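can u do me a favor
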């Protein structure tokens, strides 16, 4: 999504001379066009993310709309105190953009992964979290962020190639069940959702897929709530730890709004079960978020045998 993000920044900056871009010495082969277009409004703050967050808060206080960029753990966990104290407590409209959320940086290992970012960011006061799915979602997310006078967090990753999907919104139904009755509803967030579309037809035909793209969440669409009550089989899926992400958000809302007992299962990033590192796809598979392991988990949940 880096290419689409850079193009979106340039497009928005053409109409808004208050946009200032700060990078933590990252963005090679992605941000050159942004630097050329913005000129002195492009600042390489160096490997100094805490300082960059405070600089951005100061710029926002002076009426600018700063975008700060780095890879996910460097832009969220390292300057967390400055984001909380300087940006969020003062409700400054700083736009925090992270590349490679989840296992996005693969073989580079745990120091470059971030399976805590959605939770840690959405816990902060005044913060809104955006998790795009497609290339088109990147521009839509940024447009909405620029209209928001509060701090925002944007999680970038490898974009889905799915087409003909509903336009960006907090909740979207991506796929209805092909059969007359759904066997399960899978609610996911982020680009890991793409792995669901790679399931065998005998599984894919029987499930309904919903996508959540913004946090915090205060309500569930009535259509989805009614469908959950009818189908009674729900799976959540996220390339994020089980705490403070999609699963706990949805579970708390269902406890408040659903009176019908349901069967509920969760698929999430549990870290490094084998103690090894690999590609993003490899980590997803190890955590039952992709490939045969994902297929098996859904089969077990629905109590069906693999089709021969």
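np, heres the sequence
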């Amino acid at each position: 999504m880096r290419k689409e993000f850079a193009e979106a920044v340039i497009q928005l900056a053409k109409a808004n001379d208050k946009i200032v871009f700060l990078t933590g010495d990252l963005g090679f082969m992605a941000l050159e066009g942004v630097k050329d277009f913005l000129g002195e409004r492009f600042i390489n703050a160096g490997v100094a993310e805490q300082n960059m967050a405070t600089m951005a808060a100061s710029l926002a206080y002076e009426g600018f709309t700063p975008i700060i960029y780095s890879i996910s753990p460097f832009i969220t966990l390292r300057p967390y105190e400055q984001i909380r104290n300087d940006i969020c407590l003062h409700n400054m409209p700083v736009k925090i953009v992270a590349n490679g959320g989840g296992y996005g940086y693969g073989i580079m290992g745990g120091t470059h992964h971030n399976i805590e970012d959605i939770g840690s960011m959405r816990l902060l006061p005044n913060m809104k979290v955006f998790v795009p799915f497609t290339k088109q979602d990147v521009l839509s997310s940024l447009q909405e962020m620029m209209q928001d006078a509060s701090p925002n967090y944007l999680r970038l990753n490898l974009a889905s190639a799915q087409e003909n999907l509903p336009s960006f919104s907090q909740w979207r139904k991506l796929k209805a069940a092909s059969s007359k009755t759904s066997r399960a509803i899978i609610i996911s967030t982020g680009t890991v959702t793409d792995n669901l579309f790679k399931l065998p037809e005998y599984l894919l035909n029987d499930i309904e897929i919903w996508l959540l793209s913004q946090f915090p969440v205060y309500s569930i669409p009535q259509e989805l709530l009614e469908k959950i009550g009818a189908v009674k089989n729900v799976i959540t899926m996220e390339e994020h730890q089980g705490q403070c992400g999609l699963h706990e958000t949805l579970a708390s809302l269902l406890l408040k709004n659903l009176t019908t007992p349901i069967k509920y299962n969760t698929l999430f990033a549990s870290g490094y079960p084998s103690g090894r590192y690999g590609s993003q796809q490899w980590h997803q598979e190890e955590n039952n978020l992709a490939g045969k392991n994902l297929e098996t988990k859904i089969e077990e949940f629905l109590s069906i045998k693999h089709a021969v």
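The CA atoms of residues 76 and 117 lie 7 Å apart. hope that helps!!
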